[in-house]
Specification:
By secondary structure, this protein is mostly helical. The chain contains 9 helices and 2 strands; from the N terminus they run ααββααααααα.
Amino acid sequence: MENPIKSPINSQENIKEGVIAKSFLSNVFSYMAAALTITGVVAYWFGNDVGMQSMMYNVTLAGMSLNMFGYFVMFAPLGLVLLMSFGYQKLSAITLLGLFMVYSVLMGMSMSTIFLIYTSTSIVTTFLISAGTFGVMAFLGYTTKTDLTKFGSLLMMGVIGIIIAMVVNMFIGSGTMDLIISALGVLIFTGLTAYDVQKLKRIGSGVEYGKNETNKLVIMGALNLYLDFINLFLFLLRFMGGRR
């Protein structure tokens, strides 16, 4: 027989965990939104200002090509992600936040090329579709009772497969393969959004709010969701974006 005294205590603990998880996720989404805003503003600025573009590109009669600083901008974000991931234990929350903000600026500079390739209308339309898809999947990830852990493992394998396929297609140059990669990328990062939100909800329910370790988890969680959204957006843009 269930203990009538223990049940209310368990109920209060569940409520407390739920409140903590909501507060944790609220902070995660706030940092993510801030980083996306920075990326969007920087991308628009560099993508529509010839003077800023000249910082990254050499303009010749044959066209535009990346200069040394341009190559740095393209590859530096990967280095920052690796630094944040492998240096997580040693870095402070403030340092992680600073790196995340620098990362969002560099990503904006890197993504400015989309304004040179795609029409502004298609970029805005794709962004709205991405935001709607992300929101729906985040809600499903937060509310579903189904354990998405196994799906997460498969989706991460899919990410590795896509990276390999993209590298191979750089040499092959197949339009059909590019279309398939883009479609798979949309599906994979749509699923990863739900998985990551559920994972963060579980993490959030077991943390102590206000602790330095919690703040670090919030920042890394924001980075994960930021990457989910950016990749979803870019794969959708490759799939449905109208070129200039």
